[in-house]
Amino acid sequence: MPTSLAALIVGFLAALILTPLVRYLARRQGLLDEPDERKVHHVAIPRLGGIAIAAAFYLGLTAALLDGSNRGALLGDPDQFVAVLLGTALIVCIGVIDDLFGMRARIKLSAQVAVALAVALLGLSIDRLYGPWGEISTGIWAVPLTVIWFVVVMNAMNLIDGLDGLASGVALIAMGTFFVIASTADVPFSLAAFLGAGAGAVLGFLPFNLSPASIIMGDTGSILLGFLLAAASVSVTQSGSPGASPWVPLLVLGLPLVDTSWAVLRRLAGRAPIFAPDKRHVHHRLLTLGLSQRLAMVVLWAVSGAFGLLGLLATR
Q1: Residues 284, 288, 294, 297, CA torsion sign
Q2: Distances in Å between the alpha carbon of 3 and those of 8, 17, 40, 64, 218?
Q3: From CA 4, how far away is CA 20, in angstroms rounded?
Q4: Phi and psi of 178, rounded to 5°?
Q5: Going by C-beta distance under 8 Å and a sequence separation of 6 or more, which residues neighbour residue 101?
Q6: Where are the alpha helices (DSSP H) in 163-281?
Q7: Is 247 exposed, middle or buried (0-12, 13-18, 19+ CB in 10 A)?
Q8: Residue 228 and residue 240: Cα distance in Å, rounded?
Q9: Sign (positive or negative) of CA dihedral 203, 204, 210, 215
Q10: 138 and 130 in contact (C-beta within 8 Å)?
Q11: Distance of CA 57 to CAs 8, 162, 280, Å?
């Protein structure tokens, strides 16, 4: 069995089992996301779904490591493997702390910057950019560019997680797209295992997250998925000769990136704090137009799929 398929299956089954367990424990402990004027749900919902996603992801990755036939290939690029493994662990810790106790926006942002910096220094960085212009070395800008990219994608996935099932579906579509790109290019084998484990975990979590959701992923889930997608996009642009154009990840992640960019511009224009939450994201707009939560989710999944298709076409 291909290692990525083993990671996906184990991650999927683990999430199917762990998500109801986490939901039960969260309810028992009163760890609920309370409704307010900014949120779309009207009842309190367990908010620790990201813990189930993270645990299922690591179990899927463990299945890949236990596959002796491909272990050498999986560990063949130790810099990338260690960078992603350490980065996901640290990001999960940040998310859990935020979901359990809450974190001020600036503190959370600083922690994300620190994790992205560690990942870049470990070797998963944007060292060169390929395009019609040829290859350009980023030189001293490699680390700052990498840190900015990771922080932007993590927060973009966090912001798009405002509708039942939306962030899960967007992440699945993007992971699938990056997997197809990776399978046709000289991309480190470990990326397929990470994507397989991540996709399996999200796929197993999704049935419980569809409207009306019985559990949400919280910051633990959204920034973990953002981290994995940022890592995948860096990998596909830096691997191979040449790697994918920088336009490819921008297109694949087009929906959350456009929504986040518009939110920042909107808040700057209104002289509001950048981190101030509001109810004017793209999913809120669709609900205002009269769409149901499920229909709005499907529409935005379709938009995300269209962006992914454009990303695939851009690789050719």
Answers
A1: negative
A2: 9, 21, 39, 5, 29
A3: 25
A4: -65, -35
A5: none
A6: 166-183, 189-209, 218-238, 247-252, 254-269
A7: middle
A8: 19
A9: negative
A10: no
A11: 9, 22, 32
Q: Is the peptide bond before 242 cis (omega within 30 degrees of 0)?
A: yes
Tokens of 266: 């909107």
16 Cβ contact partners less than 8 Å away, ≥ 6 residues apart: 204, 207
Cα-Cα-Cα-Cα torsion 38, 41, 45, 50, nearest 10 degrees, comes to -70
Q: Are 86 and 30 in contact (CB under 8 A)?
A: no
The C-alpha atoms of residue 149 and residue 151 are separated, in whole angstroms, by 6
What gap in Å lies between CA 202 and CA 175, rounded to an integer?
Answer: 10
CA triplet 259, 263, 264: central angle to 5 degrees? 120
When the pLDDT of each residue in the chain is averaged and rounded to a whole number, the result is 89
pTM for this structure? 0.94
Q: Report the SS3 class of residue 205.
A: helix
Single-letter code of the amino acid located at 96: V
> How confident is the model over 20-73, as pLDDT tens digits?
999 999 999 999 988 766 667 778 899 999 999 999 999 999 998 887 555 555
Q: Over the stretch 224-277, which tens digit does the pLDDT of each residue have?
A: 999 999 999 998 888 766 678 899 999 999 999 999 999 889 888 887 777 777
The residue behind tokens 């295992």 is 193
For residue 232, count other CB atoms closer than 10 A to its CB.
28
DSSP-assigned states of every residue in 58-94: HHHHHHHHH-TTTHHHHTSSHHHHHHHHHHHHHHHHH
